[in-house]
Design goal:
244 residues; mainly beta; four-stranded antiparallel β-sheet; 22 strands; globular
């Protein structure tokens, strides 16, 4: 189940959602709408939870999603929810776009994405690949078309958006670097040297920094956003999956 913690009083018992997630690996947060979205693969439904109480508001049928660590993303500009799966088993639909309000399926694609990221200001969804393919695509959520593609390192991981430089950032664990792409054209812009096993990225533009975490070493690094250099590295713990 999803747990909700009061970050100003972490000694308080967390709120617990009134529905199970089906062991979902992730959820999506819509702060403007006050909702959380979770894909329960066991019931084949998208769960829509109220943000503060974590109670179930409604469900959306999502049958035939390919099994294999699915992600879900909400785009406020297009009013869509997108589910993508790595497709451990190549059956069903690995990439499906839903209308948020009606639950109608708007598009299905053969994109076995390992990760998803929504552009913060435009109806663009980025998808990269961990398993069978190498590369990244930019998908137009309004016109439901792939608007750009680019090659990447093998087995790339999490992505982040750099609003200062207008770039898409992508972690490359095996290479210990962060690849850079123009956010609209996906033109390669080179790479930043980071830390071994860099897997997750969070950008803090107002403070001119980004935080990155390593899958291999369990370390976190503080990097400058403007000068793109590593400032400090410390150990946090094993198997770092996400950073926000």
């Amino acid at each position: 189940r999803v747990l909700g913690f009061d970050t100003e009083n972490l000694t308080e018992r967390p709120i617990k959602a009134n529905v199970e997630t089906g062991a979902a690996q992730a959820f999506e947060y819509n702060p403007e709408g006050g909702e959380l979205y979770i894909y329960n693969s066991k019931t084949a439904k998208i769960l829509v939870l109220e943000n503060h109480s974590l109670t179930l508001k409604r469900t959306i049928d999502a049958p035939d999603i390919s099994p294999g660590d699915p992600w879900i993303k909400y785009c406020p500009k297009s009013g869509t929810l997108t589910i993508a799966s790595e497709a451990d088993q190549q059956r069903g639909d690995p990439f499906v776009v839903f209308d948020h309000d009606s639950g109608q399926v708007l598009d299905k694609c053969d994109l076995e994405a390992g990760n998803l990221l929504v552009h913060p200001e435009k109806p663009i969804l980025y998808a990269n690949f961990f398993r069978r393919l190498c590369g990244v695509v930019a998908y137009d959520l309004e016109n439901r078309t792939v608007m750009a593609k680019a090659p990447t390192d093998a087995r790339t991981d999490r992505m982040a958006f750099d609003p200062v430089h207008g770039e898409l950032l992508m972690a490359s664990p095996a290479e210990g670097r962060i690849q850079r792409f123009d956010a609209l054209t996906l033109e390669p812009k080179g790479a930043l040297k980071s830390i071994l096993g860099v897997r997750v990225i969070a950008v803090d533009a107002p403070n001119d920094v980004m935080l990155v975490g390593s899958l291999i070493t369990g370390r976190v690094a503080l990097m400058g956003l403007a000068d793109r250099t590593v400032k400090k590295v410390w150990y946090l713990g094993p198997w770092l999956r996400s950073i926000v």
